[in-house]
Amino acid sequence: MLDSITIKNAEIIAVGTELLMGQVLNTNAHFLSQRLNEIGVFCFHQAVVGDNVTRLTEQIIMSLSRADLVILTGGLGPTDDDLTMQTVADTIGIQLHFDEESYEKMASFFRATCRMMPENNRKQAFLPSTKDGIILPNDNGTAPGALMWTNYEGANKIIVCLPGPPNELNPMFDKYALPILVKRTSSKLVSKYVHIINVGESKAEIMMKDIIDSQTNPTIATYATTGECKFRITQSFSSEDSENEDKISPIVEIMKERFGDNIYEIADDNNGRSLAKVVVDMLNSKGLTLGFAESLTGGMASSCIVSIPGASSVFYGGIVSYDNSVKENVLGVSREILDTVGPVSSECAMQMAVGAKNTLKTSIAISFTGIAGPAGGTPEKPVGTVFVGIADEKGVDSYELHLRGNRTKIREIAVLKTLDLLRRKLQ
């Protein structure tokens, strides 16, 4: 039966009351959707169901009526509320059997950690037989998964049961389930992701509306994130299509013409390089070093840079100069500037940047000072007023930003826009 199944679309069912209550973030659906997209399988529906047999059964039946592939995550543990495997078996009418090999692997897992295996873990070794499914080993935990097949209303379907913890689910799916599924797809999807800054999602969509409306393959979609947006361009290849026919590149060229240097990254996958990664790579290629003086951002810019692997080759450090005494005594901002134009000013930002460059001995230093709110704003300098200083070997420049949002968003966008200022300067 398995070899006769062609997968075109899928549904994901996340099982667990803790997901419904918001106690656990459902990152599994995000991971699985990406993987399905990569092999040309469309995920049209996702669902979250609590630990309830009746409701889970209803959802499995509904999903089987619409999808070729149904993937369930969670509910494979040893406790009474872990009911996924048995509920799936009961719904599709198969018997689970005790699998000695899986049970011994669980026992070895506990022995390796010098623990006694509780009796209720035996439940996890009840799995489909070879005529009904394939056991998916768990190399990182005790709960095996399973890939099963069934005939539902005259159509052959695949059901995959995976454990809930991402550190178990991700490698299990990639190593054991994906190689089976990819052989049973009828198409392939290829995508490009165009990352754009300083243009909002709605404006970006309007700028590309004529192209979006004229395309069915490839498809074009926009996504908004904090301070930036992203286009996904996806071309579908059927088994009869030639993969040499590239319909994506011409659209990317149109985007380059329309968005110019607001495009900072064009990637082959959904992750791509972040703006911080782009900046780190540019600094590396030019042999330059970077430091920060942070008042408004309080270390957020430094944290953003050090989250990039290899940032130590370009980033020397940061000075959090929140209080005026630090601006004056550590960074050398003059008392006259602080008393006359104030700490939230172009003059202060420039002196902070120069002070940081001299203190940290970097090629470039960037300063942040401003009003993040919710209080502290004035008619002349409302909440969201930010001054940025950038000092390099040629001198120092200042930039004035007027941002909107809550305290966290203002600080985040200040960092993002400043990294973009640096990117453009490095170009």
Question: Would you write up a description of this structure?
Answer:
The chain has helices at 17-20, 27-38, 53-66, 84-92, 100-112, 166-182, 201-207, 209-214, 249-259, 275-286, 300-306, 324-329, 335-340, 346-360, 407-426; strands spanning 9-15, 42-49, 69-73, 96-98, 126-128, 133-136, 145-152, 155-162, 187-197, 219-225, 228-238, 263-267, 290-294, 315-320, 364-370, 385-392, 395-402. It has 427 residues and is of the alpha/beta class. The strands form 4 sheets. Strands 2-1-3-8-7-6 form a 6-stranded mixed beta sheet, sandwiched between helices. The chain has a 5-stranded mixed beta sheet with strand order 14-13-15-16-17, with helices on both faces. It is elongated, with a radius of gyration of 27 Å. The termini are far apart.
Query: Describe the biggest sheet?
Result: 6 strands, mixed
Task: Please state the structural category.
Answer: alpha/beta
**Helicity, in percent?**
25-40%
Overall pLDDT: 94
Shape: elongated
* Contiguous helical run count: 15
Runs with pLDDT <50, length 5+? none
The strand count comes to: 17
- Which range does the strand content fall in? 25-35%
Q: Describe the strand arrangement of the main beta sheet, using strand numbers.
A: 2-1-3-8-7-6
Indicate the radius of gyration in whole angstroms: 27 Å
Termini gap: 57 Å
